Amino acid sequence: MLRVLRSYGLLVALLVLGLVFALAAPGFATFGNVADMLRDLSIVGFMAIGETLVIIGGGIDLSIGSILVLAGILSDDLLRGMGWNPFLAVPLVLAICTLVGLANGIIVTWFRIPAFIVTLAGLYAIRGIALSLYRHDVTSVTNALISDPTFLVLGQGDLFGIPVSLLLFLVVFAAALALLQRTRFGLHLYAVGGNDLAARLSGIDVDRVRVVTYTLSGFCAGLSGVVLASRLQTGAPEAGLGAEFDVIGAVVIGGASLLGGSGTLGGTLVGTAFIIVLAKGQSLLGVPANYQSFARGAVILLAVVLDGLAQRRRLRTRVITRAASLREAGQPTAAAPLGQARGWR
After folding, report:
1. Which of these, 175, 153, 173, lies nearest to 272 by C-alpha position?
2. What would the mean pLDDT of 146-156 be, rounded to a whole number?
3. In this model, does residue 97 exceed pLDDT 90?
4. Rg for the chain, CA atoms, rounded
5. What local confidence, expressed as pLDDT, does residue 342 receive?
6. Contact 49, 172 (CB under 8 A)
7. Is CATH 1.10.3470 correct for 2-329?
8. Which of 133, 81, 169, 129 has its CA nearest to residue 89?
9. Residue 130 predicted with pLDDT over 80
10. 211-240 residue pLDDT tens
11. Rounded Cα–Cα distance for residues 136 and 93 (Å)
């Protein structure tokens, strides 16, 4: 019941929220605002895809916001500062961000350091590196903006009225969905997140699986940064502040458990849309920033509480099932005293 409530209840809540804002918030239901929300969805969604894989595997990645900044600033430096062709600059930026994610995974697995600590350190260190690379020595506003038309298509272009960034997101989403549901890696990932020791004993290379998730998270965060830089026409140093918490919130709201072993990309998509609609609607209504933060935090807390209740129910079901099987086998259980279970009188 709780799982159904989190899955379908969230979708219903999203539709109701959208309807309320369409009626109450001026300009919410306009084509331009919907297009903006879809672009926001793609930028947050890229990071949410990578974070979902990490969380299903029992980890967490707090460095994604800083990797986004790194990707944006590197794109700005290469395209505006050095005049690179976007077909060379973008793959290089994505490769660097992927290597950063790989480094996170290696440190977590090889040195057995908690992922929270490693990625929290990465949050600060990577942002510091990115800010040190930012080229702000410009002589005019025009020189401060990326002007390459090919690169700008990623964040500003439309194809038949659909944002190019959304189409790119759907491609990445479909690829990640196939990876999670149609490959052995996906099965291994759920096994690793559900029970690390059992996965090792069954022959799964747990470290390799986790390294892959952090590597993909780095790539997805880099893609978000590239698309955002294209949309803003600059590698904004202040971009990505707090993005990791919005992303983790979207993943948790979408049904993924912070304990690992559960979660779906479909739920993450709905959770991301909910976060975007909530933020945009409140902004159009003129809700103060402090109340916006409170509302977002309350929604995330509710999702975590529902997850905790669902975990307790699953554990209780397992205990009852195990006790029943032991009784059938004539073994002692908590419900049957040891002497009675052995047939003593």
Report:
1. 173
2. 93
3. yes
4. 23
5. 40
6. yes
7. yes
8. 81
9. yes
10. 999 999 999 999 999 999 999 999 888 888
11. 19
Among residues 163, 148, 302, 168, which one has the least CA distance to residue 230? Answer: 148
**163: CB partners within 8 A, 6+ apart:** 35, 38, 39, 42, 157
User: What integer pLDDT is reported at residue 320 of this predicted model?
Assistant: 72
Q: Quick one: three-class SS letters along the chain?
A: CHHHHHHHHHHHHHHHHHHHHHHHCCCCCCHHHHHHHHHHHHHHHHHHHHHHHHHHCCCCCCCHHHHHHHHHHHHHHHHHHCCCCHHHHHHHHHHHHHHHHHHHHHHHHHCCCCHHHHHHHHHHHHHHHHHHHCCCCCCCCHHHCCCCHHHHHHHHCEECCEEHHHHHHHHHHHHHHHHHHHCHHHHHHHHHHHCHHHHHHCCCCHHHHHHHHHHHHHHHHHHHHHHHHHHHCCCCCCCCCCHHHHHHHHHHHCCCCCCCCCCCHHHHHHHHHHHHHHHHHHHHHCCCHHHHHHHHHHHHHHHHHHHHHHHHHHHHHHHHHHHHHHHHCCCCCCCCCHHHHCCCC
Amino acid at residue number 147: S
**Per-residue tokens: 301:** 């807390």
Q: Record the tokens describing residue 343, joined without a space.
A: 């047939």
* pLDDT at residue 339, as a whole number: 44
- The whole model's pTM is what? 0.88
Q: What is the mean pLDDT of the chain?
A: 87
In 3D space, the residue among 85, 79, 84, 108 whose CA is nearest the CA of residue 217 turns out to be 108
Q: Between the CA of residue 332 and those of 8, 120, 335, 338, what are the distances in Å? A: 40, 46, 8, 5
